[in-house]
Amino acid sequence: MLRQLRRRYRLGVVTNGIDRVQRARLAASGIAPLFDAVVTSQSCGFAKPDPRILHVALHEMEVLPRHAVYVGDDPATDGAAARAAGVRFVWMDRGGDVRGRRPRRRVTSLRGLVDLL
Hints:
Blueprint: H1 2-8, E1 12-15, H2 19-29, E2 37-40, H3 41-44, H4 52-61, E3 69-72, H5 77-85, E4 88-92, E5 106-107, H6 110-116
């Protein structure tokens, strides 16, 4: 699904994590080359829900907030960062508990994301 999305969209990773750990995970999974940007809280100095972490990724990818979609699994943290950055948010619902309000746009798989976009 990532390869299919990559044919039409620029893809990035934004994560509150340790840079070398997150990059190693992407490399080990074989999907690292599919992403135009990988921004970690450690590398940029901002953590979600601070919208500046998304601004760093958008800048690296040369994408305006109004042309971006942020997909995240935590409606509170990821959704708040996206809203504050002016980016549309899609919740990747993995069936866990939800704090706060339920996002309007929701998918349960990357296949659902392909269909939604």
